[in-house]
Structure formats: C-alpha cells, structure tokens
Amino acid sequence: MVRNLAKDAVSGLVATAAMSAVMVAGQQAGLLGDQPPKRIARGIMPGSRHRPKPGEGVLGAVTHFGFGAVSGMVFGVLAGDRPVRVRYTVAYALAVWLASYSGWVPHLSSLPPIPRDRPGRPLVMAAAHVVYGTALATAMNRVRGRPRKRAATPSAPERTGHPAGVPG
After folding, report:
1. CB 151 within 8 A of CB 45
2. How far apart are CA 60 and CA 76, in angstroms?
3. pTM
4. Which end of the chain is less congested by CB atoms within 10 angstroms, N or C?
5. How many domains does the chain have?
6. How confident is the model at residue 115 (pLDDT cuts 50, 70, 90)?
C-alpha cells in the first residue's frame, strides 16, 4: 500500500507539472492574471490578502505540487487496483477544481468564486484540470505497470495446407 501511495504521489506530481504548463500558457495569454497558487499562498500568509508578499510564488508552487501529489494519492486509494480510466480522472480533477474554487479557495485568498471570476481564468483552470486528469491516468497506468492497449494485430492466415506464398 505504501508503495502504491508513493507511485500515486509521483503520478500526481507529473500531472501537476502538465497542468502548470497550461496555467503558464494561460497567464502568458493574459487570461489568468496572477497564478492561483500564488494568490492562495498570499491569502494564507500574514498580512493583507490583496498585497504581494515575499516568497508567495515559492510557497504557492510548493503547495500546488503538494496538493497535486496528495490528490493523486487520494485518487489512487479510490481507484484501488482497478485500471485507471481517463474519464474518471478528468471527472475527479474537475470535481476538485469546482469544489475548491467554489468553496475554500475564495475563503482563503483574494480569488472570487468561479461565477464572479475574471472571464478567462475559469476557462484556463478548467482546461488545466482536464490536463491534470489526463496526465494523472497516463502516469498512474505507467508507474503502476498497467499494460497499455496495443493495436490489434492481424490474425495469422488460415492454414491451407500449402506452403507460404503458394496459391491454393
């Protein structure tokens, strides 16, 4: 069980890295504003939730990857020994996003709930969580040693009694 938790945590870290790439792209496109993990870190640090603080970027990144690793472990426990399906990890990741950004995130940070957020951020964050879910399933199946589906191979020709290549 501990070995599986470690593998699932690594899968969560890999998925968080993929998700973070989407978030950086969204920020560079001007859709995201400040990174949400940075804003959440700012909210839990002493002082105003609305003023930048030294170290908030590092704390945000560390907690973001920590949350991603723990989320991977939680999904791993829920999945048990069953094969991990992308549709379930994507649904799980979107549920985590909806619950977090409609509940505890607005209470801890200066980020508003999803319906009142800036227009581009929910789109970027939903896409980032879809990427997290997809990467989580891929990473979990790989580190857990699940065989990938292989392309169907053509079946052997029926035996005709003739040597190969000789028409019957």
Report:
1. no
2. 24
3. 0.83
4. C
5. 1
6. very high
